[in-house]
Structures are given as structure tokens and as C-alpha cells.
Design goal:
The structure is a homodimer of 331-residue chains. By secondary structure, the first copy, chain A, is α/β, with parallel strands linked by helices. Chain A contains 12 helices and 12 strands. The radius of gyration of chain A is 20 Å and the shape is globular.
Chain lengths: 331, 331
């Protein structure tokens, strides 16, 4: 199994990437090879410095010195920068030289490159970012996490199918409970998009649709897969991170004030996104895994782990089969 | 100053209402009279029982024995139940027998009754619920909190004007920073609604529009007034409450495990919605203040306080003047 990793992705690249790759190589077993995509001389130097601790037979380097920056327009950056680490990594995957590509670089560029080079699977209009939210049941998959800001009901139905397979293959849930994010429980509640999507999902074959899920039910584990458009999903995701930070800050202040000692990190480990690794772009013909730009080594290592599990479980093939359900039968 | 209070609003009515009214009467000074709207015999009995602690000269009762239940269709309930506490309270206000009406009953019925009997102000297509979110700057006003799930750019511009006046009159901010909830900072980011609204707000006279505010900037106090549609707003609001509960639960577990003692309530007082009182329906010709259905006495008391401050500052008149800015000039 060969997984390519963007070595020009994080804000601190390539150090978290190298450490993350070493973590994954130590965890995932002998079959894994990591292909670092980035600045070869720098990478050689860093690997050299680490000496014996590096399993050199299982790390390769592909030279791609150019970096797409977060501010750039994704589509034009992908066209204008063929030697960028993102374009190089996605093309390696398209040419099946690697089985997946992981990057903590520009999310927009990862999406654009994946759409252009890997292409959406038949039956998928809009690939979606599948993000895990820490909840009282462990984690809930939310999609779309930000790839598609204006959605139609059929897009949300496709997200439900994508999430259904992710939950089966990567979360080990046989019959995932699919919920539609909404502002009330009743089918007639919500905006036009959610009312129409509720109707579509209610009659979608093969999905265990449990109905609307309100904002307050997400954290309580009201469903395994939460379907929403990418605007709401992205707002929620960023809001969640910052609320957790805010509350922990309040706690630290009170600890300072009262002189209490407390293992804050331990208590809130479940909220640490680094535990969850990356978010795959679901619905393309391949495995593009997107990481947070500030990912520490653990997050990178876990993202490679997500990619490895997706490869082993044949998630992409399962998604292709699932989405074919809604395609018109061939004549 | 006379403020009517729905005494059939909370889940535990009328007890939190009576206690809340007494709190407000003690805090707000002699000019306040509270008019309890509910079941007269029950209310008389409860007031009697409290004896001397009740300033009977400043509490009145209006008999309205009927209660609109949360599950009922708001519009038809308002038509079919003229003797309900909500319809009676809003009509008392329409007839100017009271200066405001506060209720912890059905939000939908409060909105429907307010729209029917008080009417929107000229220039307001859709009144909005103005909700305070606890943030690192104290509180941020978010609107719409759930009254309008499908919005057009001009509705969001009206929300900005409503929020501008609320922040001036009730939060004491001379030049409130108006932010548009979005998934990126750049003007071209977001869905169709947010891109068009950004353009509208950028040229709206008299508003201090600071641009897009991402999910993660809300809690960090990125703006004083956060404008969004009622679908996203309602999801965020409910999500926030439950995230805070979840994190505090994690904390309690860790405390139990380690035997640490800690004043959780004290540390997180800022997150307690009861501190913030009710949310006024902004943009109607009057003051309808909506409270959480599980409001404790403190929340009811603070909601009466919000109504009192709005009356004193002449918020409704100021809103009427502000919204007139966008009306076509008379010929």
C-alpha cells in the first residue's frame, strides 16, 4: 500500500509531515510505504538527520518544489502550478502510482485538483468533505464540511449515500443512522432545502434515515451521519473548535484564580481534532484526504491511517456501487 | 412602565414566572408594574401564599386560562385561541395597555401573534429574533435566531439595521461592528445569499459593516452584531448550548475520576443563558420578548429587564427611524 503525503502542506512543513509519516509507518505495519511529495533536498536532509529511526525502505520522495498558498484562487492555482505538491500528489494518485493522497495544504486546491484529475464518480454531482465531530457517542460524521455552499436536495441525498458508506467502512457501523440537520424534528420544519431533502431521503432505498436532527442533538449523538449543506457545515465546524477553545480558556482562568490543578488536556482529549486525522473528499474516483493546516504530527499520522483504512476496506468501490443505486438503469 | 408577562409560558408555569416577576420588581425600581397573564385563581393563590413579600400594588392579573402548546401550528393556534395567554398578552400590548409582553411559551405562536396584532414596522419585511451569544467580549447579538429560515439579501440587510439599533440601545455600543456570518473572509466567499448580502451591506448607509465573520471568529468577539439567516442562526444557537453542556459533562467526569473539586457553575457563569434574559422579536411595532421554555426565575427576571431597557431607550422608535433609511422617499 502506497500513500502519498504533501510535504508542503502544514504551516510548519515539512516537519509535522515527516514526524506524522514516521508515526504512521510505525503504526500501520510493513505493507505501508509513504511517498513524500515536496522539496527533495530539504526532505533528504531532514530524513538524513533522523538517521536510524527512519525506515528508508518505506519512505520515498517525489520532487515537487512549488507550493499553492492558502490565499490563491484554487482553480487557477491548480492550472498554473503543475509542479506544486498538491497537483503532483493528486496526479500520482490519478496515475495509480499511489493508492491515496493526503494533504494539509489549501483545501480549495485539494478539491479543485481532485475534481479535475480524479473526477467525480458516476452519480455524484458534488463530492463532499466528510468531517468527524467529537460527540457523546465518540464521533459523528458530518458532511458536507465545506466543499459545496449552495446545494440542491439531490446533492444532500448523495451526501447521505457517501456518508452511509464512510460510516460502514471507516467507523464500523453496520446500519448507520442518517440524520438531516434542521431546526425542528417535524418533516415540514426548516427551509426549502431541508423540507425537500427530507422527502427525498424518506424514500431513498437502502438508507436508514432517522429524520431531522436539531443543533442540540448533534453532540448528544442523535445520528451517526449528519447531512447538511457545506455552508452550514463549515460554519458549525469552525464554531465548534472555537467554542471548545473558549470554554477551556474559561476553565484555565478559573484554575488560575483558585489555584486548582487539573489535567485539562486529558479531560478534553476527545475534543482534539488531531485524534481524528483528516477528512476525505468523498465521491471522487480516488482517495484525497484533507487535513487542518495547523495539523500536528499526530493528526498527519492519523490522516494517513484514515487513508489506509479506506484503501483496505475498498471504500471508493463501495461508494461507486452505492451511488449507482440512484442512476437510471441502462437500456 | 407596565410589562405583561405570560404566566403560562415555561414548562413549570406559573412558578418561574411569579418568582421572575418578583425579581424584576425588586431590581427595576418603583416605576415598573408587572401584569401577569394567565389563570387568575391559580395566580391569586400563589401570590396570596407569598404574603408580604409580594408588592401587590405593582402586580396585576389578567385572566387568560388557555395555553398554546409547543406542538401546535402557530398561525392556526393564534386564530383559534383568543383566550390563550400569548394572544391575550400581545393584544394587551397592541391596545397599549402595556408597554411590552414577555413570554416563555411557544416561540412560533409569539411570532405569529406579534406579526398579526403588532404588525411589522415600515421597511421591515421579516422581523427577526435577536439572540445574545456569550463570547469573549461578553456577548454578541446574533440575528436571526430562527424566525426566518429562507432569506433574501435585503432581509439580511434589514437584520443588520435591527441589530445596529439593538446594540446601540441595549448593549450601549455607539458604533456596533456588524459582521456577516460566512465561511471565509473575502467578499467573494460563501453561498449566493452571503455574496449578495456582502455587496448590499458594503454600501448600506450608516452601518459599520466590517465584512465576513467565520464560525471561529464569533466566539472570539469578531463583531458586535452577527447577521445570518434564521436557519443557520437557530442551528448555531442550539448547537452552542449543547456543546457547552457536553464539555462541562466531560469536565465533571474527569473531576469524579480524579476527585478534584471545582466550582464549575462559577467558572462557566458567562455561558448561562439565564444571565441574558429573553430575545426580542425585532422589527415589529412593539416589544415582544421571547424566552427559553425552560427558563428559571432569573431568566424571566432578566427578560423583563431587557423589555424595561428597550422601553426606556425607545428602541422601537429608533428602529422605525433606522429602517426608514431604506424606504423610497415620499413624493
Amino acid at each position: 500500500m502506497r500513500i502519498a503525503l504533501d510535504a508542503l502542506g502544514t504551516d510548519e512543513a515539512p516537519l509535522p509531515e515527516i514526524e506524522g509519516a514516521l508515526l504512521a509507518l510505525a503504526t500501520e505495519g510493513e505493507e505501508l510505504t509513504v511517498v513524500l511529495v515536496g522539496d527533495r533536498p530539504r526532505l533528504e536532509e531532514e530524513l538524513e538527520r533522523r538517521g536510524e529511526s527512519v525506515p528508508r525502505g518505506r519512505i520515498e520522495i517525489v520532487h515537487a518544489p512549488d507550493r499553492i498558498l492558502p490565499g490563491e484562487s484554487p482553480a487557477s492555482a491548480v492550472r498554473r502550478r503543475p509542479d506544486s505538491s498538491i497537483v503532483t500528489g493528486v496526479r500520482l494518485h490519478r496515475d495509480r502510482e499511489v493508492d491515496a493522497f493526503v494533504s494539509a495544504g489549501s483545501t480549495g486546491a485539494m478539491m479543485a485538483a481532485s475534481l479535475i484529475f480524479l473526477r467525480p464518480l458516476p452519480g455524484v454531482d458534488r463530492p463532499a468533505i466528510g468531517t468527524l465531530l467529537p460527540t457523546s457517542i465518540g464521533a459523528t460524521l458530518m458532511l458536507d464540511g465545506g466543499a459545496n455552499v449552495d446545494c440542491k436536495p439531490r446533492h444532500l441525498q448523495q451526501f447521505a449515500r457517501l456518508g452511509h458508506i464512510y460510516a460502514q467502512d471507516l467507523m464500523g457501523i453496520e446500519r448507520p443512522r442518517i440524520g438531516l440537520l434542521n431546526i425542528g424534528e417535524e418533516p415540514e420544519k426548516g427551509n426549502e432545502l431541508s423540507v425537500e431533502t427530507h422527502a427525498l431521503l424518506s424514500r431513498a432505498a437502502g438508507l436508514h434515515f432517522i429524520g431531522n436532527v436539531e443543533g442540540r442533538e448533534i453532540i448528544r449523538g442523535g445520528c451517526d451521519v449528519l447531512v447538511c449543506d457545506g455552508f452550514v457545515g463549515n460554519v458549525l465546524l469552525k464554531f465548534y473548535e472555537s467554542v471548545a477553545e473558549f470554554i477551556i480558556e474559561l476553565l484555565r482562568k478559573e484554575m488560575d484564580r483558585t489555584g486548582t490543578r487539573f489535567d485539562v488536556k486529558g479531560a478534553f482529549r476527545v475534543l482534539d481534532y488531531a485524534e481524528y486525522g483528516g477528512a476525505p473528499l468523498l465521491g471522487v474516483n480516488g482517495l484525497s484526504v484533507i487535513c487542518h493546516g495547523a495539523s500536528p504530527p499526530k493528526a498527519i499520522g492519523n490522516a494517513i491511517g484514515v487513508a489506509a483504512r479506506a484503501i483496505r476496506s475498498k471504500m471508493v468501490q463501495h461508494i461507486a456501487r452505492e451511488l449507482a443505486r440512484d442512476l437510471p438503469a441502462e437500456a
